[in-house]
Amino acid sequence: MTWNAGEDHGRELHRGTGTGTRRVYLAHSDDEGGSWSSAREFTGQAKRPDWWWYATGPGVAIQIRNGEHAGRIVVPANHTSGMDGYAAYAILSDDGGENWGMSSVIAPACNESQVVELSDGRLMMNSRNQSFTNDERTGYRAIAFSSDGGETWTPPRPDAHLGDPQVQASLIRYSWPGEGGPGRLLFSNPAPAVSRERGQRIRMTVRSSLDDGRTWPIRRLIHEGPAAYSSLARLPDGSVGLLYEAGTEGPYEAIHLARFSIGWFDGGAA
What we know:
Blueprint: E1 2-3, H1 10-15, E2 23-26, E3 40-41, H2 43-46, E4 51-56, E5 62-63, E6 73-81, E7 85-93, E8 101-102, E9 110-117, E10 123-129, E11 140-146, E12 157-163, E13 170-175, E14 184-190, E15 202-209, E16 218-234, E17 240-246, E18 254-260, H3 262-265
């Protein structure tokens, strides 16, 4: 969780002109979310003093499944500062969230991010492409990789398969290789159809990759009109849940939940 002074708007926080900066807290549950501990501040372990804006996600974290860093919690985060501009990174815990460290910074022009573990053991960070001036903006999602459990990251590069109308997106691993197929990633974001709509938050779309994000050949339109942020989840019965902002006149009129089977997504029977 994050906290900031009520009089500080996001604009001030992003540019370092607020009365303060973001502070970082966490809480835990031992009963599947039925109740929660008191919030504990750990700003010093998650955010550097010269960073202005700070946010985790928005979206989900992962726990590494395979390799020497198995069990590590990796939480995507982002910040702004005079040195980095807009940048992404991750906070990491090897002891169940008691103590945290920070990864290297992913910059330039990276904002809200999501991370997945790949079948070869690397991590892939997928970030919103944004900067103060937008001179560095490509119009595509920014991709970076880590071979050391999220501690350091490659320079970001644009993914020509995934357009980015400057908005948060969701990315999850749905399945691993050998679990009934080659392994599947799912990605959701607004996907304007033509160049003149490129910057619009419309057409909430889910895509699928069967090759660890190298290509995204399968896609389904979920909502034609205005749409914004989203969050994907694999549900206990194997279906997919997509929580997303959408409306008819604007993207923030309501929060919707779409639920669909992989068979329907792939074009088969629901």
